[in-house]
Amino acid sequence: MDDIKAQQMNAFLIRIGFMEGLSLGENASDYTEDMLFAEFHNRQPLLILGEILFSQRLRTDLRWVGQDPEFSYRFRYRAMVEKEFAEGNFSVIPYVSTELFWDSRYSTVNRVRLIGGSTLAWGPLLAFEGNVTYQYDSHYTTQNLYALNLILHLFFE
User: Fold this and answer.
1) Which domain range does residue 125 map to?
2) Which of 77, 109, 112, 141 is the least crowded, having the fewest Cβ atoms under 10 Å away?
3) pLDDT-derived band of residue 8, with 50, 70 and 90 as boundaries?
4) Rounded-to-integer distance, Cα 38 and Cα 26, Å
């Protein structure tokens, strides 16, 4: 992140969308979900702390879960810090984030997610990301979840 990128960066972003989820395999009928979501992002470079980018996201999920869909909603808050190390067309971006989930079905913060990882970018069109995720959910059968995620990013201009 250099001064030119910092000046061009949109500090505030809004994203809306629709997602549909379902179970696969022999338990295909166990879980279905339709969800409308809206996200509000704020990104601020912290130049005095070594050019670290601090991001916040507030997300609202309007959900219809189950075979006989019941309406519920969630509020999700995520804070993330990241720093880019660039050399030519290659960059490495380590990051850490934490996210809190408040769910109307339980009227409490029932889920906390912690993620640490890195993105490796080659040029403006291709990036690989890997991270380790820990998630605690007080209302799920597996309260402590650990995951290793590998993600391929393709960007189209």
Assistant:
1) 3-154
2) 141
3) low
4) 32
DSSP per position, the chain:
--HHHHHHS-SEEEEEEEEEEE--GGGTTS-EEEEEEEEEEEEEEEGGGTSEEEEEEEEEEEEEETTTTEEEEEEEEEEEEE--EEETTEEEEEEEEEEEEEETTTTEEEEEEEEEEEEEEETTTEEEEEEEEEEEETTSSS-EEEEEEEEEEE---
Of 64, 76, 70, 97, nearest in space to 15 by CA: 76
Q: By the 8 A CB rule, do 117 and 129 touch?
A: yes
Give the pLDDT band of residue 2 (cuts 50, 70, 90). Answer: very low
pLDDT in tens, 77-129: 999 999 999 998 899 999 999 999 999 999 999 999 999 999 999 888 999 99
Give the β-pairing of 85-87 and 70-82.
unpaired
Tokens 């409308």 label which residue?
36
Burial 101-127 (b: 16+ CB within 10 A, else e): bebeeeeeebbebebebebebeeeeeb
Number of domains within the chain: 1
pTM above 0.90, yes or no: no
